[in-house]
Each structure stands twice: as structure tokens, then as C-alpha cells.
Design a protein that fits this description.
Elements lengths: L4 H7 L3 H8 L17 H10 L2 E4 L10 H21 L5 E5 L19 H5 L5 H21 L4 H18 L5 H16 L5 E6 L1 E3 L17 H8 L13 E2 L1 E3 H16 L7 E4 L7 E2 H14 L21 H17 L1
Parallel strand pairs: 1-2, 2-3, 3-7, 4-6
Antiparallel strand pairs: 5-8
Helix pairs in contact: 4-6, 4-8, 6-7, 7-8
Length: about 325
């Protein structure tokens, strides 16, 4: 991958041997017990030698199937926790979550564990809630299969179930809900295992390391930028003064390394770290708008035929009423015609 370009340039022909001494890739699946590691010898070696576990595994789509997201984001996190407990030399488990597990609330969000009452609507045991969700998923899947529905229909039904359950517990989408449950289940089940939770906001391309601008795929706000660059996004309903919480990928990595170092040195026993830019270096939606127009005017996107795509400033709306009128004239009326 392109992210390794700097190392490849530095090591040249010796790159592969250098990497093979540092990194071993192990096939597995966090949604399975013991992380789905089938090589028993390798699993025993990991359990014997590993002193640090970092869990980045997650499904980040907001509306993925509930059974799939629950299996990876919540059950998977618990599987990583249980596996880490078996490691003879374990010193620390780092779980990468998201700042949006905090839901929607005014003011400054503190670096504190999520409260069980918020997730469980008055129940005292979040594990009970999580087990209940697993039972609900199994029951709904059985019902759907018994109706002889197509795979597409089952997928749609499970996506709707995830959003329905998330909204019931006051989270905006399936992703944040399952990540929030993961945090609560881990905190309640960790026992004596040292646990650090990292909560980044919207992760964007790298600021500096290994080089500026690297990103794996299109994520979060990048979808808006790409749609605009391709000339598909003509308007955006937004408040120009709203601050976006963006954080470069390498800053997130640096913060994780710092948190690990502090924990290993026992200089800081903090449990949760928020990684955000809005307090120190806020960026407004209007700034993003201006940056997009300036950049893609100087460096236009080229379509599949090599033709440059010309962009214009996005249409702004003074009210939602104006937005609805625009949508009716620009899209609904032509579609009816």
C-alpha cells in the first residue's frame, strides 16, 4: 500500500526482509471466540508472548446490518478483551472507539466511561442489555428466513433493525450504538486488565506522517469532498458557523502511541482519551466549503475520459424552507416530468 512508500524508499531492496522481521500477519476474525485463529501453535505463541493488544477492528458504516455490526463492534470487542486476559504477559489493552459514543449532548463532553443507565434505559446491567440484543437479532433472523425472503430483503430488514434499536437507546445510528455498547461491556468485564479507550472524532487524511494527505479509502467527510469534486454535489443544507470535529490519522496514531507509553511507564492511569480538534483548532463548515472550491478550481478532478470537471460554489440556503423549494424545483419537478 501507498502508506509504506517512505519505508520502501528508505530500505530499497531490503524492505521485505526488514518488514518480515518486524511484522507477522495472522489471519483471524474478531467476531469469533479466540479471534478465529486456527493455527494453534501460533495462537499459543501469542498467548505466551503478547504484552500489548490494540483493537482497531470495527465496521464503520452507519447503517450496516445489525447482526454483522453487533458481531464485530460489540461481540468482537469482548472477544478481544477475553483473549487479552489469557495473555500471560499482558500489560495493556487499547480499544479504539469513537467520540460519537457520547451521543448528542450540549457543552464539553468529558473523558468518562458511559453510564449504564443511559444505555439501558434504567436497567442496571449493560451485559443484560447486550445479551438481549443478541437474542433479538437471532429471533429476527429466524423469522426472516422462515418467510423465504431474498438476501436483499433480509439485509434491508436487518439494517432497519439496527437503526431502530439505536434510536430506541438514543443513539443516531447502528455504528455509534454498537461501539457504545462495546465500551460499556468492556469496562464492566475487564476485571484487573488495564484498559485504555481512545475516542477520535472524524478521522481524516494524514497531516504529516508518513507523508501529508494519505487516506485509506473514502471516509466520513471525504464523501462530501469527492462528490463535490466530481461535480455531483451542487448544494448543501448546513449552518456555515457549525464546527466540524476533524482529526488527522497520524495525530490519532501518535496519541495512541503516547497513551501506550504513559500507561507502560505508569505515569498516567487514564482510561479514556478524546482526540478532537474543535477546541484548539476549530474548522467551520464554511471553511470546508471555501477550501473545496479553491483546491478543486486549481486542481480539478478528471473524469474517466480525462476531462477536467469544473466546480462552482455550493448553493447556500437561508432556511430549510428555501432548501425544500430548491429540491422541489431542481429535482422533484424534473423527475415528475
Amino acid at each position: 500500500k501507498e502508506v509504506f512508500r517512505v519505508l520502501k524508499d528508505e530500505w530499497g531492496a531490503g524492505f521485505q526482509s526488514f518488514i518480515s522481521e518486524k511484522v507477522v500477519a495472522v489471519a483471524g476474525d474478531v467476531s469469533s471466540e479466540d479471534l478465529g485463529i486456527v493455527d494453534l501453535h501460533l495462537k499459543e505463541e501469542i498467548l505466551k508472548e503478547a504484552d500489548l493488544v490494540l483493537n482497531f477492528a470495527a465496521i464503520t458504516k452507519f447503517d450496516e446490518r445489525y447482526d454483522v455490526t453487533l458481531g464485530t463492534n460489540t461481540s468482537g470487542a469482548l472477544h478481544v478483551l477475553n483473549f487479552s486476559k489469557k495473555c500471560a504477559k499482558i500489560k495493556l489493552l487499547v480499544h479504539v472507539s469513537t467520540a460519537y459514543v457520547c451521543g448528542e449532548a450540549p457543552g464539553i463532553l468529558m473523558e468518562k466511561p458511559l453510564t449504564l443507565g443511559k444505555a439501558a434505559r434504567g436497567r442496571s446491567n449493560v451485559v443484560e442489555v447486550w445479551n438481549g440484543e443478541n437474542e433479538l437479532v437471532a429471533k429476527r433472523l429466524h423469522q426472516l428466513h422462515s418467510q423465504n425472503l431474498t438476501d436483499k430483503e433480509i439485509t434491508s430488514a436487518m439494517q432497519n433493525l439496527g437503526l431502530e434499536r439505536a434510536h430506541y437507546y438514543w443513539w443516531p445510528n447502528t455504528y455509534t450504538f454498537t461501539k457504545a455498547m462495546a465500551e460499556m461491556v468492556m469496562v464492566e468485564s475487564k476485571g484487573d486488565l488495564p484498559l485504555v479507550i481512545i475516542r477520535p472524532t472524524m478521522v481524516t487524511s494524514t497531516l504529516k506522517d508518513p507523508f501529508p494527505g494519505w487516506l485509506e479509502g473514502v471516509r466520513t467527510v471525504d464523501g462530501v469532498l469527492v462528490s463535490y469534486a466530481k461535480g455531483r454535489l451542487k448544494c448543501l443544507a448546513h449552518k456555515p458557523e457549525v464546527v466540524l470535529n476533524l482529526i488527522p490519522a497520524d495525530i490519532v496514531v501518535n496519541a495512541i502511541i503516547g497513551a501506550v507509553g504513559m500507561a507502560f511507564a505508569e505515569q498516567h492511569l487514564g482510561l479514556i482519551y478524546h482526540l478532537s480538534s474543535s477546541m484548539k483548532n476549530p474548522i467551520k463548515v464554511s471553511d470546508i466549503h471555501d477550501f473545496m472550491f479553491t483546491f478543486f478550481t486549481k486542481h480539478p478532478w478528471r473524469d474517466r475520459h480525462g476531462k477536467e470537471v469544473q466546480v462552482a460554489k455550493l448553493t447556500n440556503f437561508s432556511s430549510m424552507a428555501c432548501f425544500h423549494v430548491y429540491m422541489a424545483i431542481r429535482f422533484q419537478l424534473p423527475l415528475k416530468v
